[in-house]
Write a structure and sequence with these properties.
About 70% of the residues lie in helices and about 5% in strands. With about 180 residues, it is mainly α.
Length: about 180
């Protein structure tokens, strides 16, 4: 829309427009790094390898960055390509700054997983194990509706634990109703 206004109205040539072209070039670079031999249809007609497209756009942006009077920030395109390539190839600058982020994220994920596992173990120890002991002593007929609900809930979350105790979850019996 701004490009059309730029062409149609002379006053639009003096209004700066900030776009996301650097980020788009970064995404294109990421695609080319991970799938360099994939073909992209340039202008929906010409098949071009992804790496060739990025190199071509980089060369074009470099040449056009020296020209005067364009409303396009070609150096932003080159910056998007450079930053994406450096990030994906593990530049020490990004490794130092972003490595800590990745490690903290992995640590949080592992801590959350451990907390969920501890909650599940506590649920089984406090709620399910007494019910399983009751079944072993008195049989399935002695269970209340609430105890059956707890076992059904445990069956959906802890099949491995129920299998260890050789208890069949209620899901099996739903087929026979």
């Amino acid at each position: 829309m701004f490009s059309a206004l730029y062409l149609l109205h002379p006053a639009m040539r003096y209004i700066p427009v900030i776009g996301a072209s650097g980020a788009i070039f970064g995404l294109l670079t990421a695609f080319a790094v991970y799938s360099p031999q994939r073909e992209i249809l340039l202008f929906f007609v010409l098949p071009v390898k992804a790496w060739m497209l990025v190199v071509g756009y980089a060369a074009l942006s470099l040449m056009l960055s020296f020209s005067q009077g364009t409303a396009v920030a070609h150096l932003v395109h080159l910056g998007g390509i450079a930053v994406a390539f450096a990030y994906l190839k593990g530049s020490p600058v990004f490794a130092d700054r972003c490595g800590g982020i990745r490690e903290r994220r992995a640590e949080r994920t592992m801590r959350a997983r451990a907390e969920r596992e501890a909650l599940r173990e506590r649920f089984f120890a406090e709620r399910v194990d007494p019910i399983l002991d009751k079944i072993a002593r008195q049989g399935m007929a002695s269970l209340t509706k609430e105890e059956k609900r707890i076992l059904a809930q445990a069956g959906s979350h802890g099949r491995e634990r129920l299998k260890e105790r050789k208890i069949i979850s209620f899901d099996v019996f739903k087929k026979f109703r």
